[in-house]
Design goal:
The chain has helices spanning about 10-15, 30-45, 60-70, 75-90, 150-155, 160, and strands at about 100-105, 115-120, 125-135, 140-145, 165-170, 175-180, 185-190. The protein is of the alpha+beta class and about 200 residues long. About 15% of the residues are buried.
Length: about 200
């Protein structure tokens, strides 16, 4: 129907990862493939839930599943399972041992929420921090104030990821962390020439 919809082969990979209906309640009547397609339409297209086309289930039902799966950790589980499958298919260990961290300051509107001022970039807003493995597969995304440092931002995820206390040597700009269940990471920070840390 839409470019964001799952193909048959993609659906065959993901359908077993979809959480089953909870016992004791009403039987599930929605087509879960259509629910996933609707979620992808909203997330990839960046539209409002209420603007979901009529071909999909009602927006409130779609949002309900999105919210439940987000809060229960099912989205994270699905993502981690798929990342593991891709890594193993590529002949890599399921747990990455190296990664790349980057951050970007972006301007924000006057809508409520966290924001700060990044004096280096002269941007008032938020900073998004992204950690990917060597295949470019997403490991962590954190949003902080634009004035926040990338190290503090990663620390915001510490309880969920079970990170041990970081050992850092800021003079040499190296940082090593161990992420429980994912192996050991060693970060080496490379700055563009002429930029101060």
């Amino acid at each position: 129907m839409y470019p964001t919809d799952l193909t048959d082969s993609q659906w065959n990979i993901i359908k077993e990862l979809i959480p089953p209906a909870k016992p004791g309640g009403r039987p599930r009547t929605l087509n879960m493939r259509m629910v996933i397609n609707a979620i992808l339409y909203v997330v990839v297209g960046g539209i409002k839930w209420r603007m979901l086309p009529r071909e999909y289930p009602k927006w409130k039902s779609v949002y309900h599943y999105f919210r439940i799966w987000r809060d229960s950790g099912d989205w994270q589980r699905i993502h981690d399972t798929l990342r593991t499958q891709v890594r193993q298919r590529d002949g890599r260990h399921k747990h990455p041992t190296a990664g790349c961290l980057d951050s970007q300051s972006v301007k924000t509107t006057e809508i409520r929420g966290i924001r700060g001022y990044d004096s280096g970039k002269r941007v008032k807003g938020r900073k998004r921090h992204v950690l990917v493995d060597t295949l470019g597969l997403l490991l962590v995304v954190v949003v902080s104030t634009a004035s926040g440092s990338r190290w503090r931002a990663i620390g915001l995820r510490a309880p969920e990821w079970g990170m041990q206390k970081a050992a850092s040597n800021l003079g040499g700009w190296s940082l090593s962390r161990s992420i429980d269940g994912m192996g050991s990471f060693a970060f080496e920070i490379y700055l563009a020439s002429g930029l101060a840390p």
